[in-house]
Amino acid sequence: MSNPIYLALDVPQLNDGIDLVNKVKGHVGGIKLGLEFFCAHGAHGVHMIGQLGLPIFLDLKLHDIPNTVAGAMQAIHVLEPAIVTVHAGGGRAMMEDAKAAAGENTRVVAVTMLTSMDERDLARTGIEGSAHDQVMRLAQLANDAGLDGIVCSGQEVKAVHDQWRDGFFVVPGLRPAGSAVGDQKRVVTPRQARDHGASVLVIGRPISRADDPARAARDIEATL
Ligand SMILES: O=C(O)c1cc(=O)[nH]c(=O)n1[C@@H]1O[C@H](COP(=O)(O)O)[C@@H](O)[C@H]1O
């Protein structure tokens, strides 16, 4: 079975990012490049990291009108990402058009409820109810729109997996026992997420901010 860990490369300097990937390469299955990386280094940066030989997850969290999101998806074909994110809150038509515009080897997954939010935060956006219900509702919408899967926390992934057996589930908000939670709120360990049906485990700071990132990645891999 391939390694499900994707390192979230949230670092400001491209050279530091390249060094980090080279250090952890044998212990992760892919690299996630998000907004911080893409705003700083753009397509050139994605290309440079892609050359290091691991699959690229381009986490752009697209959320706009369908025509604009479809245009963005077409523009990134050339980068050949293995996975791309859109926000499920953009609606069914936006997700349908995103999928239709994606390259054939790119999985399109919808972010449901950010792992940095709890139910109080959700209520402040005007949505009453549990994180579970919100994730299940948006997972159904993403499924109806023909997406490949969703992003959710490890607290919901089992329920989503039970409903959507062939879905592809990306789980961030992961913390090995005892590591700092930071801004994440709906947190589980990498092993719990894996046991509950996660396809991809997104892990950033527990590896990138460790004194020895290669060892941190290896230790997490050993728990799976
Ligand atoms: O789409 C994501 O990857 C994502 C969704 C979400 O709900 N929560 C979340 O933390 N992420 C990303 O996952 C990574 C988590 O990083 P760490 O908290 O440092 O492990 C960051 O790059 C976030 O942008």
UniProtKB/TrEMBL annotation:
It catalyses: orotidine 5'-phosphate + H(+) = UMP + CO2. Substrate binds at residues 10, 32, 59-68, 115, 175, 184, 204-205. GO terms for molecular function: orotidine-5'-phosphate decarboxylase activity. The active site is at residue 61. The keyword Magnesium does not apply. Pathway: Pyrimidine metabolism; UMP biosynthesis via de novo pathway; UMP from orotate: step 2/2. Homodimer. Catalyzes the decarboxylation of orotidine 5'-monophosphate (OMP) to uridine 5'-monophosphate (UMP). Belongs to the OMP decarboxylase family. Type 1 subfamily. This is Orotidine 5'-phosphate decarboxylase. The lineage of its organism: Bacteria, Pseudomonadati, Pseudomonadota, Alphaproteobacteria, Sphingomonadales. The gene is pyrF.
